[in-house]
Amino acid sequence: MKAEELYRVADKVVVVTGGANGLGFAMARAMSDNDADVVIVDRDRSHAEQAVAELSARGGKVRAEIADLADGDSLRGMFARISEREGGLDVVFANAGITAGPGFLATSGDRDPKGAIENVPDELWEQVLAVNLHGVFKTIQAAVPHLKQRGGGSIIVTTSTAATKTSPMVGTPYLATKGAAAHLVRQLALELARYNITVNAIQPGPFQTRISFPELVPVFAAGSPMHRIGRPEEIEGVALFLASNSSRFVTGAQYTLDGGQLLGRAD
Amino acid sequence: MKIAELFCVDGQVALITGGASGIGYACAEVLADNGAKVCILDRDAAKLNEARQRLAVRSPDVMAEQADVTDRASMRKAVAHVIDRFKRLDIAFINAGIGGGPGFLDMTGKRNPAGAVENLEDKFWYGHITGNLTSVFVSLKSVVPIMRAQQSGSIIVTTSVAALKTENFVCTAYLAAKAGTAHLVRQVALELARYNVRVNAMAPGSFLTGIGGGRMADPEVQKRFAAANPLGRMATPDEIKGLALFLASPASSYVTGAQLSIDGGGSLGQAD
């Protein structure tokens, strides 16, 4: 079978949260370059509109929705609108995420008091949970009725290698939320399998995005067996695989794209 | 990026062990359909010849080599023939394996004395470790020097979800061998990353293949495996194609050392 047929997403209705930047934008681009109907969800109107303009200029069928992922009612309304206008819903990338400040070690390897557990502000903890965990939960909750109605679909959550291993330079709330999101994926995959809804995670390692700290880039590159961090466009292949019908037997999986980061360090 | 460009393997040279049937043959088909030059290896000459003929309909650049993946000399010879004809090696599916046979429970859920750990014969144990673990080591040794010299390549090893979780119905020796293979993949991925050679594993769950002396052909066995799966079914070999081409192609350029499971949720446990 030719690749075009195998990974076909043409005319699928695809929603990407956090789709205006970084990995989400690369996912949206992979979909729109291959003729899916794409809805970019973002909380920032100007970023969302800019992303839509860029993808439309490449010939994509793309729209934006401005939403606050902490607001379940507004998400339910949004998915109902999308489903009605597009005639259904096929694929949801629950991708939006935010960083959580410094880890307990600075890039120098010294302790960073700001990242010490007793100094992590409650507000930061709540903010990070609101997007990275509650946001994923609420997005999926609002989307599932429409996927059930369609007779199946694909949910793809962006987790992180920080969900699998500890990472002293990454903020503790980030780790906790990504670990929770990864396990949420497995439980929902089990629940939704009989409705032919697959739920999987893309687990990226260090990528060059807006939410990565510039000072961490050389540290992560040096620590990577491939000696580099990922480019956002390198997420496109896995996004197409998991959104297309060629992955119908894949569910509850964590697909790691990390340049070997989880393996440890070599020379 | 357009799909055709992202997943392009046109003109690349691929070798597939255990390529005459099942998951290996499906990998060969998807590569041939997308313009790769393909060599299938198998120890069964009749099956190999039949598979080569089927592949030749899809692509002019197809060859077949009879080889035993547990025999170093035979693997060296096969790889040398691939290099003679196609001049390089970009993709290696190290896929050949042998089936586990029954576990300590039989398919009705009752204890199976033949699968009990104290009853596994040494010969049986060594056979599984050789067929599923040492075979991968021998295959790696045969292809790595070429890829290291080229400073490029993608190696894809077929493991199993049985490498990641326990399985009542699957033989203990198979589990141990596949877990060893899964970890071998990680270590070799770490070693080869700096040479731009990626090493990953596909971890399939219940696929309808001829492995294990064809016990999957038994409708009762199929029914059991399907019922134990959250998606409520087994997969056909064709369902490996998307994952196989993803890992073989530049679409997975930042993926190495990964175990990508394709199991219908079988490793999650059971629901209704």
**Tally of DSSP helical segments of chain B:** 8
Q: Indicate the low-confidence ranges of chain A by residue numbers.
A: none
How many DSSP E strands of chain A?
A: 7
The major β-sheet of chain A equals: 7 strands, parallel
Q: How many domains make up the 3D coordinates of chain A? A: 1
Annotation field: number of helices of chain A: 8
Overview of this structure, please?
The complex is a heterodimer of chains A (267) and B (272). Chain A is globular, with a radius of gyration of 18 Å. Chain A contains eight helices and seven strands. In chain A, strands 3-2-1-4-5-6-7 form a seven-stranded parallel sheet, with helices on both faces. Chain A has one domain (3-263): NAD(P)-binding Rossmann-like Domain (Rossmann fold), CATH 3.40.50.720. Chain A is of the alpha/beta class and 267 residues long. With 272 residues, chain B is an alpha/beta fold. Chain B has one domain (3-265): NAD(P)-binding Rossmann-like Domain (Rossmann fold). The relative contact order of chain B is 0.15. The interface between A and B is large, with 52 and 53 residues.
Give me a quick take on this structure.
The complex is a heterodimer of chains A (267) and B (272). Chain A has 267 residues and is α/β, with parallel strands linked by helices.
Primary descriptors:
heterodimer; A: 267 residues; alpha/beta; Rossmann fold; 8 helices; 7 strands; B: 272 residues; globular
SSE inventory with pairings:
The complex is a heterodimer of chains A (267) and B (272).
Chain A: H1 3-6, E1 13-17, H2 22-33, E2 37-42, H3 45-57, E3 61-66, H4 72-86, E4 91-94, H5 122-150, E5 153-158, H6 172-192, E6 197-204, H7 217-223, H8 236-243, E7 254-257
Parallel strand pairs in A: 1-2, 1-4, 2-3, 4-5, 5-6, 6-7
Helix pairs in contact in A: 2-8, 4-5, 5-6
Chain B: H1 3-6, E1 13-17, H2 22-33, E2 37-42, H3 45-56, E3 62-66, H4 72-86, E4 91-94, H5 122-150, E5 153-158, H6 172-192, E6 197-204, H7 219-227, H8 241-248, E7 259-262
Parallel strand pairs in B: 1-2, 1-4, 2-3, 4-5, 5-6, 6-7
